[in-house]
Q: What sequence folds into this?
């Protein structure tokens, strides 16, 4: 990915989360943001992913300006994948349905197509045995892996991860990190 950020600012009330941030990345597969708690990493990630509108500044990703009117933002978000600290799976839907529902509703696949793409995504990450389980019937690591399968099922241009292992114990962290590494090696751009 290629990234140009210039003079980015974002305030929440009196809190200045981003204060004139500029950043130039000519070519990267994986970009990691490191900094102190409250330093603005999640805010920057959300701005880059089109989930948050900055107060001022410019963002260009892969040579295209990030536009902030609602229709552009909506189609930009659809092209990307997201995974956060909390698992954010729908608690009343099976692992398979958690993946197939957005493929139908957001990405306009037919139910049959959505189901087969979702099955492929679960299979790719060794989760097919869990397809019919609800999130509460899965370990934290398994839930987060389902979350990753959902985030990449539509082949996102960029996958945005915000501390995806911080709620997991060390053993489960390892299984999620292995999966993220495999994605990076397969060519997925990740921030
Ligand atoms: N929705 C919000 N409303 C009000 N203030 C916010 C909001 N989101 C973030 N902030 C504030 O903006 C600043 C930057 O927060 P941000 O979440 O980007 O930090 P971070 O670097 O991701 O921190 P951490 O490592 O703890 O996740 C903090 O002072 C935070 O309190
Ligand atoms: Mg954060």
A:
């Amino acid at each position: 990915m290629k990234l140009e950020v210039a003079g980015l600012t974002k305030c929440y009330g009196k809190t200045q989360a981003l204060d004139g941030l500029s950043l130039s990345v000519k070519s990267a597969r994986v970009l990691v943001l490191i900094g102190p708690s409250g330093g603005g990493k999640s805010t920057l990630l959300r701005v880059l992913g089109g989930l948050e509108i900055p107060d001022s500044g410019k963002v260009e990703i892969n040579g295209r300006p990030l536009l902030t009117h609602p229709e552009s933002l909506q189609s930009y978000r659809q092209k990307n994948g997201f995974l956060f600290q909390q698992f954010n799976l729908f608690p009343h839907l099976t692992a398979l349905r958690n993946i197939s529902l957005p493929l139908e509703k957001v990405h306009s696949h037919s139910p049959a197509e959505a189901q087969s793409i979702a099955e492929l995504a679960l299979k790719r990450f060794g989760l097919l045995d869990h397809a019919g389980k609800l999130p509460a019937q899965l370990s934290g690591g398994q839930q987060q892996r389902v979350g990753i399968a959902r985030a990449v099922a539509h082949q996102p241009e960029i996958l945005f991860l915000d501390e995806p292992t911080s709620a997991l114990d060390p053993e489960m962290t390892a299984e999620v990190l292995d999966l993220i590494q495999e994605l990076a090696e397969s060519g997925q751009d990740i921030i």
Q: What stands out?
A: Residues 82-190 form a domain with the Rossmann fold fold (CATH 3.40.50.300). Strands lie at 3-12, 15-25, 56-61, 64-65, 81-83, 158-161, 189-190. Residues 41-42, 162 surround magnesium ion (ligand 2) (CB under 6 Å).
